[in-house]
Batch of 2 targets.
Target 1
Amino acid sequence: MLTKRIIPCLDVDAGRVVKGTSFVNLRDAGDPAELAARYNQEGGDELVFLDITASADSRDTMVDVMERVSEQVFIPLTVGGGIRSVDDVRRMLHAGADKVSVNTAAVNDPDLISRGAQGFGNQCIVVAIDAKRVPSGQAKASGPVDPELSLTDESQWEVFTRGGRTPTGLDAVKWAVRAVALGAGEILLTSMDADGHLEGYDLELTRSISQAVTVPVIASGGAGTLEHLYQAFDQGKADAVLAASIFHFGTYSIGQAKEYLEGRGVPMRR
């Protein structure tokens, strides 16, 4: 049986780890290299670093972060935010990342997924999807959207880009399926509605996309208790869970999380 993964997430702004609520109200959570070393020691299966500033200057900072972290951490590292080209992908991989996550650039230029997968392998390309629930009866496309992927009356979640600031008119489930067809090796799925609220993942969203695609899905946004992690695996059908607040601020350790999940019958890496 395939084991499930626990992945601490480090949102990086100007070289520091921060954490917010629904993508706003950020507070400092520490130095990325120090936190990464701690999670490596605690038994984290992977680490995700997201540059939430996503400017050219910030990308230089993230290269430095990757180089510092990869020198002392020996679990897979994923980096995302501000990745706009194959050259950006190459630069981050050379800096020490094992995978690169793309969101806004992939929506703007879907072929970037294919070019990245062809150049570095599907396993290196993670497509991040920030999704927000669509109020009943209010779904509408915005901007030039592929009609096959656009919101309809049946749509439940819309894709947002630019750090959750820009609605795209894309149906989240349809976009996930298209991203995998283009070469994405994994989907990093964040519920904007649940993010930072510590009240649990959007299980319906996670399950819908997990069942629609053939690659691993990482559930993100909303973890507040160890039961929430279990629910993401059991009801959400996720392959991995991403969490930030519960680990950064010492609510639980990764060891406690794995022990709890193993006790509930979830196969974990030890």
Target 2
Amino acid sequence: MACFLVPTAEAIIAGVSKKSVKKHEKTESGKIPFSTKLGWLVKMSAFGAILLAFEHVWHGEVVPFFPFLTNAVNPADRAEMFHEMATTGVLMAVLITVVWIGMLVAVHFIEKSAKEVKEA
């Protein structure tokens, strides 16, 4: 119903954070800037939200007229919609973030081994 709004919000927040971090960032030689890594999170969250939105459009849960979400019309359906956002949407955003953190850990070890090879 509206679970795609949570990863969308995550992408927006990460995008704003990326711009803020980029302003104050000092780049180190041989390391990927953190703003670039935040860009990965933005892309992953946005792509996940787009896929979820497409699935909801496909099933007729998103319509091209106000209020755009079919469950936003009836107050009883809104409770179900918010429950889906709180469960499925948050779970998807957390999963995307966990995968991103895994990517950061992998990149850290790759950068570390590349630095050791360069020093040797």
